[in-house]
């Protein structure tokens, strides 16, 4: 799906993929996996994350500061994303 982005995690990193972009960011080493995408709101994600220490928790990911740090214009990049799915879910 061309307007779909994907979220996954591996080790200490999470990855947000959309078209040719792959944005990796550091997360807790205790994160086992993301289990649900609850909300996608133009750069802001609400997810359920499963940790080996605490179990499932609601987490919030704001992509806009990450995009700005990578010199990716959020106003151009984000409107193309209509949906976010879990990768390898």
Describe the protein:
- The chain is mainly beta.
- Helix content is 12%, strand content 56%.
- It has helices spanning 63-69, 74-77, and strands at residues 4-10, 13-18, 21-26, 31-41, 44-51, 55-62, 83-86.
- The strands form two sheets. A four-stranded mixed beta sheet has the order 3-2-1-7, with no helix packed on it.
- The longest helix has 7 residues, at 63-69.
- It is globular.
- The two termini are 16 Å apart.
Number of domains: 1
Helix/sheet category: mainly beta
Q: How many strands, what sense, and barrel or not for the largest sheet?
A: 4 strands, mixed
- Quantity of strands, as a count: 7
Tell me the span between the first and last alpha carbons: 16 Å
Q: What are the low-pLDDT stretches, counting only 5+ consecutive residues below 50?
A: none
Helix content: 10-25%
- Average pLDDT reading: 95
Q: How would you write the strand order of the largest sheet?
A: 3-2-1-7
Order of helices and strands: EEEEEEHHE
* Shape estimate: globular
Strand content: over 45%
**Can you count the helices?**
2
Using only C-alpha atoms, the radius of gyration works out to 13 Å
């Amino acid at each position: 799906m061309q307007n779909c982005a994907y979220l996954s995690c591996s080790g200490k990193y999470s990855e947000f993929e959309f078209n040719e972009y792959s944005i990796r960011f550091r997360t807790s080493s205790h994160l086992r996996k993301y289990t649900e995408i609850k909300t996608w709101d133009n750069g802001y994600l609400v997810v359920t994350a499963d940790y080996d220490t605490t179990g499932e928790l609601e987490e919030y990911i704001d992509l806009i500061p990450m995009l700005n740090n990578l010199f990716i214009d959020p106003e151009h990049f984000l409107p193309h994303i209509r949906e976010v799915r879990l990768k390898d879910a």
